[in-house]
Fold this sequence. Notes:
mainly beta; globular; Immunoglobulin-like; nine-stranded antiparallel β-sheet; 61 strands; eight-stranded antiparallel β-sheet
Amino acid sequence: MRCVLCACEAPQWARRGRGPGRVSCKNIKPQCPTLACRQPRQLPGHCCQTCPQERSNLDRQPAGLVFEYPRDPEHRSYSDRGDPGAGERTRADGHTDFVALLTGPRSQAVARARVSLLRSSLRFSISYQRLDRPSRVRFTDPTGNILFEHPAAPTQDGLVCGVWRAMPRLSQRLLRAEQLHVALVTPTHPSGEVWGPLIWQGALAAETFSATLTLEGPQHRGVGGIALLTLSDTEDSLHFLLLFRGLLGPRNEGPAQVPLRLQILHQGQPLRELQANTSAEEPGFAEVLPSLTDQEMDWLVLGELQMVLERAGGPELRISGYITARRSCDVLQSVLCGADALIPVQTGAAGSASFILLGNGSLIYQVQVVGTGSEVVAMTLETKPQRKNQRTVLCHMAGLQLGGHMAVGICSGLGARGAHMLLQNELFLNIGTKDFPDGELRGHVTALSYSGHSARYDRLPVPLAGALVVPPVRSQAAGHAWLSLDTHCHLHYEVLLAGLGGSEQGTVTAHLLGPPGMPGPQRLLKGFYGSEAQGVVKDLEPMLLRHLAQGTASLLITTKSSPRGELRGQVHIASQCEAGGLRLVSEGVRMPVAPNGEAATSPAGPGPEAPAPAKHGSAGRPRDPNTCFFEGQQRPHGARWSPNYDPLCSLCTCQRRTVICDPIVCPPPSCPNPVQALDQCCPVCPEKQRSKDFPGLPNPEPGEGCYFDGDRSWRAAGTRWHPVVPPFGLIKCAICTCKGATGEVHCEKVQCPRLACAQPVRANPTDCCKQCPVGTGTPANLGDPMQADGPRGCRFAGQWFPENQSWHPSVPPFGEMSCITCRCGAGVPHCERDDCSLSLSCGSGKESRCCSHCTAQRSTSETRTLPELEKEAESS
């Protein structure tokens, strides 16, 4: 678009500068002066060519022929230094769009790639014609070195979607410098059948229609083109940018300017014709088709207008293609809430809508509505009103199905202007009820960028409403979410919210739990800022997997103003996932794994016969390589359970094929006469004897206990315990307390008392705090050692040691290093390993404790720093 000059003109009728302006664009290529030199050069960012000796005299070029566009700040050229806001605009946008025309010298196929750089992720949509289904998408540098490959799994026919996550900065620089190439690899062309460089085009931001032009006739290869089209905002004019390759021949042959003829056809009959001049160095041009008739606008949205480009007076090479609405991997969706209504309401209702725009301009919609207090009377797709009583309705949708909460239908009368506004995110969905006829719910229809989440295309989103919270919340916010389980039983989720106030946006959390009011596990999915969140959970609890399979799971959204729940939705994912030795097939069917590794079916009630599960090593779903085999059962990575050898007082965890079992350490009870129950590990006070604290077992009194996610167990109100936090195990230096009034778990660090002795010791290796030996002690020094007038003392590993005191350091997680002695001298700690020389090690009791054999290993003591000691401890 370097040769297109656009200007914003203020409207003549607007009062005080209000109202939309008018954008007028024109092609300035014909205004370029005629050059006398034989080899003119094209300078970056310029439309017109210049002679080599005129490079320093840039003022010879007519005013307005320099098109300035933002580039990478590290590679800024002189063309964007004149625009001080170019860098700010690039940083403010957060992403940059690029496009590529893909052709090949051995193929007649033509493809178009559009990529969007969002932070460090490159999202791409590639459409192709006359090409077999590609196997991979390949990104290379200009020399052909492969930077990234992505398997080509088409989401739709002729469309490939993907994401390059964590794109290296070097590749990002190549992209911004237009040096990154993309290719489509097919089984017959392993080196790439079509390819091309990604270039920046400002027209991508306004593109709503597109066309892919292929060669008419089989005599040539490597010829094709693409067109980016959009409608004017103020009049029925069609602006377009056309890029092509192979139509003009080699760059070093033929004249500098080549005349081209462009025709717009309908069923073979010409409607419009344009003449343009272009060069082999920049094969492309921009033009405007002014004042389209109503019939031409209808043909445009129906995809019946054909664009034909040929070289005037030259070889009969013609490329052509039909103009259709822009195709991409984005999803058209809308979250409907009361906060966005024309008159905001706060009823707790919510709506969720998904749209699909077809090639003929028809719009398929699926709308879900929950929580309304009265009957839905109107569902309309409309524009943003200039005033409250001026609403332009584009489509009246069908009402909700009888007795249901969903409406499904087709809008066929959008027209070209409506499709353009839809793809420009300028339409809204409004739902009116009997109580609120002007609108109880309203949502902005936007395109959600492709993120790799396949659930968007497989199922409808789960609506999230305040009316579904127990007890109901009259919230003006709403949301919807996509959730799915992959072949490894990992949970993929994506949450979108709307209508949250500014004070609540920073404290939003998403939880997955069972039925409301029932005890069970609860998983924090993510705490996030803003209105969007997505992620993956790889170690979902077995009970939550059962709830997902049975349709009793819930997604709960909490905010600062509603910590017990602002929005809720019910989730159902039919799956066959193994978790904790169970294969979840359907509701009421459970298949525990037998000790010999084979599964035995045991249906809990009448129902269809469950299929026989596959044995270990048989064909079927691939087993996760990180699973653990313990006591005859397979446990997935992250699973936690009570072992058979000690089901009450031990807890085991699977961490990447390694089983770690920790004993449950009971803290001192808070009453003088605790009672030891037969079904509990730790003694409890008599008034709490009936409470259970088995890991994973339900709490008989949901309102009087807490669920701790660390060891996944219910605790009675007022219970105190040392937590078990995988993969670290038992944490004896922390104590957790269950607050029964709120159901919250409060954990705090154990405060070790200040000791009066000079050399405290640990009675047990697993103790958190040291204590003084029996019969020893010195007067306690209660003052701050940093402010004392005597010797300074030493600070080592978070503890203070007086001057001249010696001790054995403790290096987590290995414990006390008894063969290393540290001493405080002049305020600096010095650590030495015990001498294992022949004269000192043998016969002194050190041979079995510190020294491996009675040979002179170290003749002198060595002073080491703490990092060196930790390395030695890890290697030993």
